[in-house]
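Form 7-S
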Amino acid sequence: QVQFVESGGGSVQAGGSLRLSCVASGITFSSNAIGWYRQAPGKQRELVASISSGGTTNYGDSVKGRFTISRDNAKKTVYLQMNRLKPEDTAVYYCNRSPPIVFAWGQGTQVTVSS
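Output:
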């Protein structure tokens, strides 16, 4: 059973930072690209950042230069360092394979950025 468990969210003021973590199980972690996704109220879920099995990273235009994705294959963990947060970054953040496994979405972690 594939499972992703996210943590690290919280409430911060604009300009602040947060570091999200996601632990995976039931998947050959080191062989898969992993992505961080987010869903804001009333909006569709979107891919924020991804990292390939080889460590190549890609970012959405709205987070380039502010967010950094990384992975630790030994710990089956992917991280998202979020700096210079903006109110429009407010959302529930999820991790999943990239492309995602439909039945493996977790509970996510809430990030709230106040102005």
